[in-house]
Amino acid sequence: MKKILAGTWLAMFLTIGFAGASRYFTIFAQNLPSAKTASVAVGPQYDTAHVYVAPQDFDRFVASLIATFGGKAAKEGVFTVTPTPSSTMSQLVMTPVGTVSVFGFKTPVPYPFGLERTGYLVTDMDEAIGAARATGADVLVTVFNDPIGRDAIIQWPGGVNTQLYWHTTAPSMAPLQTIPENRVYVSADRADAFVKSFVAFSHGSVVSDEARAPGVEIGRPGETYRRVRIESKFGKLTALVTDGHLPYPYGQETTGYEVTNLTDTLTKAKASGVDVLVAPYKTDEREAAVVQFPGGYIAEIHSDAKK
């Protein structure tokens, strides 16, 4: 294997030169598994954006989300979803472009809840925790029981928090029309460690690693930044590698939703009380905008320019 890898690297170097080979070797290395772990993903329709809003904004947020994207909401309830005493309104919103778990805590939110960006359904919680540890993640909240299953919170290199969950009765949801993009902002110091860890855990792959992506995507037109796109059975993830000099609201959005027509979607959004924080802009890949829903949830919405 070492001889094969060395031969591959030498051939690339001779063919496209050191600078070009370095970039492709980085992608190649990121896609090599760092540990043998089981695949625990179920599907992107079960991977939810976690949104925390004040109880008084709860219903208004859910209504605006459905008015913007379509879909439906499960029955609302009040539960304890943390391992320590707490009480929250909770509702699952299923849209064609992504699933959202909405929480409206009636009590103070116990740490570190509220800092996780997504919830990933896994096939086996114990295997998932073992895989997370083996691939470089920290377990911030060890496994605990909730009303319908088990949960834990892990942290990837770079400080990115994710909740893992497992249901006693396996859920059944229809596939999504488009797969949402989990948008992760990481530093240059930890980007490679994050990518390697997440790719190994998710059994995914780096589909692009762009060293000079257009800075307009992070509110800095005329500049460039590094952008890494990853796809796996968990869905899509984009790592935005920056120096942290980000104009508002960049870095606040946790999810990018792909829609067929951005103009039509924004019209629906504004009619339901959504504010457009960043007006639509175009790049070679997409037309995009950043919006804020009632209750404070900030999201990117985009149409694929390649279609």
Structure description:
By secondary structure, the protein is an alpha+beta fold. It is 24% helix and 37% strand. The protein contains five helices and 17 strands. The chain has helices at residues 2-30, 58-69, 125-134, 191-202, 262-271, and strands spanning 48-52, 72-73, 77-79, 88-95, 98-105, 118-121, 138-146, 149-156, 160-167, 181-187, 205-214, 224-232, 235-242, 255-258, 275-282, 286-292, 298-304. Strands 1, 2, 3, 4, 5, 6, 7, 8 and 9 form a nine-stranded mixed sheet that branches. It has an eight-stranded mixed sheet with strand order 11-12-13-10-14-17-16-15. Strand 16 (286-292) and strand 17 (298-304) form a beta hairpin. Helix 2 packs antiparallel against helix 5 (262-271). The two termini are 40 Å apart.
Question: In what range is the share of β-strand residues?
Answer: 35-45%
Mean pLDDT reading = 91
Using only CA atoms, what is the Rg? 20 Å
* Biggest sheet statistics: 9 strands, mixed
Counted beta strands: 17
Coarse structural class: alpha+beta
Q: What gross morphology would you assign? A: globular
Helix content: 10-25%
* Count of runs of 4 or more consecutive helical residues: 5
Distance between the termini: 40 Å
Low-confidence stretches: 1-6, 8-22, 24-30
| Pattern of helices and strands | HEHEEEEEHEEEEHEEEEHEEE
